[in-house]
Write a sequence for this structure.
């Protein structure tokens, strides 16, 4: 028996369309960060880190996007989530399971979510959370250069933001667009990373942890790098103080994706 | 010049097709696991042995033991668990952590041992194959039924460490920095006690285990 060729072509066309569609849908609002080698800011020990090319969300995940997520996956609603995965502060500013409160804007970054929730959100988009190295690599760019860490203006900007309260209420995209085309890595909210628990300076375990002494030696540097080390130190220390089920109101996230399809 | 034959094109189409299918299938496959967990949880609720919100038995990961058996944590429900994260090629802290675990084990009365499992979870799943874990268990005389060595995926390991508040980082191809924490879980999989540090006084930990195991 012979199958009509038209049928096969039709079938293929649908499937290809579907495949292409899903790829496009998942990479929408993402940009390529060209990988490279860099020295992270946490120390005088010049260990270079290699970062591969990856796609990163242009914006942090917004309140409305996260709302759509919990509607689709009800086990992540405030009243449903298990305490193992999110503490009592999870979405605490929301009016109820399905409504943002009046003080939260739909296009502000989502905060008050745990690492588990952020991780799951990304997985459900076919993405993942960025590693610390990836995040720091993308975030060392200002609007013109890949590595702006030695620029006074760049460091000033970050440190001024660290002192600004309630920036989580601003809209996504309201800070600067960096070299890669990514917004809000600095200036809006802190962001979860996949391996946040690879920082070894959590408060109560300082005495007995095989700790990242690099983190503490970094302050030996002088001049501009003092500020830059300080800004980075803040980020690493913050990560080191987090636990995976903590939900914090100035901590959001964005997703990344590996580039596995060679063009 | 190389020209693609119709067959090649066909192959490519099939490749794209497969890719599409894989993308569709793989997106959020964890979610399915989670749902399965939710389902099995609701069924287990009926037989009155439900697990609490804080239980590690909510984690859907599947682990491999030193005997190359697949295991889910919830299969350990009903036992008191003493747990530590290590890697077998470790030269510095791990031998002391392992010694601490053996010391704890030695203090549990024989009558209670049956209800206690001691788990060593690898933070270096790439290196620590089941064979390697088995070898490690023999070298360290941790061969009785109480001892369980687990290896998972990189991502499940990271997640599990996050639950235990164990931080770790690969610092060279062979070495990791890591927190030295021994955790005790009750029969329902809830974390009840953590001991931090190397060679610390483990009386409290042992007391807790004995109190729980009955």
């Amino acid at each position: 028996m012979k199958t009509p060729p038209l049928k096969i072509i039709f079938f293929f066309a649908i499937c290809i369309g579907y495949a292409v569609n899903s790829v496009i849908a998942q990479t929408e609002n993402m940009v390529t960060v060209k990988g490279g080698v860099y020295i992270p800011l946490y120390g005088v020990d010049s260990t270079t880190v290699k970062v591969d090319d990856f796609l990163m969300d242009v914006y942090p995940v917004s309140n409305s996007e996260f709302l759509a997520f919990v509607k689709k996956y009800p086990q992540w609603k405030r009243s449903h989530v298990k305490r193992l995965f999110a503490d009592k502060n999870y979405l605490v500013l929301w009016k109820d399971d399905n409504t943002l409160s009046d003080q939260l804007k739909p296009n502000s970054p989502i905060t008050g979510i745990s690492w588990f929730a952020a991780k799951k959100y990304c997985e459900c988009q076919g993405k993942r959370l960025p590693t610390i190295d990836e995040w720091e690599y993308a975030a060392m760019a200002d609007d013109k250069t890949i590595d702006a860490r030695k620029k006074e203006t760049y460091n000033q900007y970050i440190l001024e933001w660290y002192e600004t309260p309630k920036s989580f209420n601003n809209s996504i995209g309201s800070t600067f667009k960096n070299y890669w085309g990514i917004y809000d890595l600095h200036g809006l909210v802190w962001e979860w990373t996949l391996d946040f628990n690879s920082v070894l300076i959590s408060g109560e375990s300082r005495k007995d942890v095989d700790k990242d002494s690099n983190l503490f030696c970094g302050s030996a540097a002088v001049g501009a790098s003092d500020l830059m080390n300080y800004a980075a130190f803040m980020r690493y220390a913050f990560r080191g103080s987090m636990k995976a089920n903590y939900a914090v109101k100035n901590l959001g996230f964005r997703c990344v994706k590996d580039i596995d399809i060679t063009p | 010049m190389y020209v693609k034959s119709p067959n090649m094109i066909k192959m490519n189409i099939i490749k794209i097709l497969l890719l599409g299918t894989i993308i569709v299938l793989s997106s959020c496959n964890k979610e399915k696991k989670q749902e399965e967990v939710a389902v099995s949880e609701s069924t287990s609720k009926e037989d009155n042995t439900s697990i609490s919100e804080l239980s590690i038995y909510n984690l859907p990961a599947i682990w491999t033991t030193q005997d190359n058996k697949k295991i889910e944590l919830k299969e350990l429900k009903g036992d008191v668990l003493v747990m530590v994260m290590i890697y077998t090629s470790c030269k510095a802290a791990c031998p002391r952590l392992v010694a601490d675990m053996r010391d704890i084990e030695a203090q549990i009365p024989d009558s209670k041992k049956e209800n206690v499992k001691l788990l060593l979870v690898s933070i270096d799943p790439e290196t620590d194959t089941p064979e390697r874990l088995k070898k490690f268990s023999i070298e360290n005389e941790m061969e009785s039924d109480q001892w369980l060595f687990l290896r998972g995926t990189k991502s499940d390991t990271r997640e599990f460490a996050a639950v235990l508040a164990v931080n770790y980082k690969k610092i060279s191809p062979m070495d990791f920095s890591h927190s030295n924490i021994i955790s005790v879980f009750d029969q329902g999989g809830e974390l009840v006690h953590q001991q931090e540090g190397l060679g610390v006084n483990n009386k409290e930990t042992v007391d807790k285990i004995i109190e729980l195991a009955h």
